[in-house]
Amino acid sequence: MDTNHDIDNNLLQKFEEQIWNKIPHLEDNKVVNSTPLIDLTADLKECAKSVYKLDLDEKDLKVYGKFDSTLLSGSIKVRAAAHIIHNAIVSGKLKGNQTVIEATSGNFGIALGQLSKIGVNVVALVSRKLQEGVFKELRDGNIRIMDLDMDICPAPGMENKADELAAKATAGNIRSQLSELGFNPEIFDINIQEIEKLLAKQDIINLARLLAKIYGLFCPKQYDNELNTEIHRTVTGVEIDQQLQENGDSLEDYQIVCSFGTGGTSGGLSQYIAEKYDKKSIHVVFPSPGQDVAGIRTKAKASGLTLYKPETFAAEHEIDYEKAKYLLKFFVDKGHDIGESTALALFSVI
Predict the structure, then answer these.
(1) How confident is the model at residue 1 (pLDDT cuts 50, 70, 90)?
(2) Pairing of the two strands 30-32 and 37-39
(3) Is 110 exposed, middle or buried (0-12, 13-18, 19+ CB in 10 A)?
(4) Tens digit of pLDDT for each residue in 38-87?
(5) Which fold has domain 77-215?
(6) pTM of structure
(7) Cα–Cα distance between 239 and 229 in angstroms, integer?
(8) Which among 30, 79, 145, 146 is least surrounded, fewest beta carbons within 10 Å?
(9) Other CB atoms within 10 Å distance of the CB of residue 2
(10) Domain-by-domain residue ranges, the chain?
(11) What is the C-alpha separation between 273 and 248, in angstroms, rounded?
């Protein structure tokens, strides 16, 4: 049982001062540090007309965008990362002398990089398929990178038929990288059979958890951690509703469109709306089958993840990202700081 004596109070103080107090959270039942909620209706209609030759001028349409790009690390992922880490510190599961390790497609790892500000080391297991810009952001965040010739996106337990020789080669690569990072390779060797078994399935998500277990590290387990959902149910949903009400609106009258990475955002917002308004309003968008969009899963790759709960959604949509690219360029040229996931969501609205 954890007690206050198990808490690293020095780490907690630094975390709250330098990270927690700068992200959206509840204080006295009100969300503080909210990110901008911007009316994008006019720009979306202009984009539809000029880029896609669709006239939406007469449509009864109002579209807001939630700009979490203004957050520390520049994405919504810092909400879940900070919530999970805060819980780990106050429960005594994470101390300042521990290392945090996680498999990531980019943004969650970049968010964890905020921990370097308070002296906590972070190791990210990433795919070499990542864009160079993501690698640069990870390096700039002082994150220790382990790059693998495997996709981070396959859901835990999904068979990918990687051959035994490839698994052994990747295991050797990981062993070498761990040694360079200062980890004892003998511990790795003791667990080699279990490691190769995970690699044969390209199960990098559970590999991160195993490495955390055998080396005494902390793994946030973002892919099935209910705290990933809870932060969006208790804060993000409340925050959006709070902002709409300040504009004389209510979230009850809107549909929410978002992409799928781990399922935390869609799951948490679904719960918030179901509990408060007794309805389903979440539309989840996926890239078309076979499209590789950084950090965003296809519907097939979402299946099997703990936080994928399609029964809570209003609908699911598979969107051609190649067409959404033109919207992305239009909005970026307009000065909006958006990325691939927002482009998919906005294009699905059109």
Answers:
(1) very low
(2) unpaired
(3) buried
(4) 999 999 999 999 999 999 999 999 999 999 999 999 999 999 999 999 99
(5) Rossmann fold (3.40.50)
(6) 0.92
(7) 15
(8) 30
(9) 10
(10) 36-70+225-349, 77-215
(11) 18
**Strand order, beta sheet including 256-259:** 256-259, 282-287, 315-319
pLDDT in tens, 211-226: 999 999 999 999 999 9
Q: Out of 3.30.470.20, 3.40.50.1100, 3.40.50.300, 3.90.180.10, which CATH number does the structure's domain 36-70+225-349 have?
A: 3.40.50.1100
Question: 179, 173 in Cβ contact below 8 A?
Answer: no
Mind listing the pLDDT tens digit for each residue in 96-135? Answer: 999 999 999 888 999 999 999 999 999 999 887 777 777 7
Instruction: Give the type of residue at 49.
Output: K
* Cβ contact 300:269 at 8 Å: no
Work out the widest C-alpha separation in the chain, in whole angstroms: 68
Residues paired with 31 in a beta bridge? 26
Residue 30 contacts by C-beta under 8 Å, 6 or more apart in sequence?
A: 242
Question: Do residues 202 and 154 touch, judged by C-beta distance below 8 A?
Answer: yes
Instruction: Give the residue among 196, 23, 204, 170 at the shortest CA–CA distance from 101.
Output: 204
Query: How far, in Å, are 5, 88, 251, 287 from residue 238 at the CA level?
Result: 33, 23, 9, 28
Tokens standing for residue 152 = 């981070």
Same topology, domains 36-70+225-349 and 77-215? Answer is yes
- Residue 93's SS3 state is coil
> From the CA atom positions of the chain, what is the Rg in Å?
21
Share of the chain above pLDDT 70, in %: 95
